[in-house]
Amino acid sequence: MLDSPHTYSSALGSPGFLAGTFLLDPLSGKADWSDGLFNLHGYDRGEVVPTLELLMSHKHPDDRPRAMEILTQVLRDGGHFCIYHRIIDARGNVRRVLTAGNARSGPTGTAAVEGTTIDLTSTLRRETEQAAREAVAGANATRGVINQARGILMGRLLVNSEAAFKLLVTCSSMTNVKVAVLASHLVRVADADEGPEAMDEFIRVLHACDQAAVKRALDQQ
User: Fold this and answer.
1) Which domains does the chain have, with CATH numbers?
2) Where would a tag sit more exposed on the chain, N or C end, judged by fewer CB atoms within 10 A?
3) pTM for the full model?
4) What are the tens digits of pLDDT across the range 181-205?
């Protein structure tokens, strides 16, 4: 009986994710699966007889032709393989998996194909959710800095919010520097110890929309 591998996911922590190993006899088409591979396909051991046909039937229809093409090539030429693809388990769940293995050679060609399949579904979902949360947090932080810079410009130039934002956008467009970068620098200068003179100097740079002057100011931060 094959053992299932020990797993760890930096996104999920312990105990990790579903994974299983397999050993395929290319002549008979029969296979040996670990308990983890049965579970990954939505079965308990003894519920089905693992075969190449059963394995391929669970491949997502869009991924099956390429997976079969690679397996055929490995059976013919030997060597290692690695496939990121989707499977549909016995309960209809779509899983995103990575299958890696190699063909063991025998006197008359490929004697067996062995490998491991790991379920990346939960890891990918967790990392996508984390990336989305970080993107939202970053957008909120950026919005906050821009609002601060807008307030500074309103106070120093005695203009309304729209005019203050337009100044940032115009300078950004003409100097090819992101609004958030300009806003962040203005807020940093306002919070520094140089006094209002340094802040007013950068505001004059914003008015001039001088790319070289903007670059010099940003390089000094």
Assistant:
1) 19-119 (3.30.450.20), 136-219 (no CATH)
2) N
3) 0.63
4) 889 889 888 888 777 888 888 888 8
